[in-house]
Amino acid sequence: MAKSKDVRVTIILECTSCVRNGINKESTGISRYITQKNRHNTPSRLELRKFCPYCYKHTTHGEIKK
What we know:
Layout: E1 8-15, H1 16-20, E2 32-38, E3 47-52, E4 57-64
Antiparallel strand pairs: 1-2, 1-4, 3-4
């Protein structure tokens, strides 16, 4: 069967400050969240402020490719 073009798609949000700085010696990884977005309402890439447990603060998390 052909893959359907669903309106709601699953996306991954990744911390932009962890990626920008590389992985610091104190941090053990990169923070990622999985969520959904509506393709018709938000066709562009999604950016949200979420808590990063590796940076210990709220940072901007941007949508990445799967």
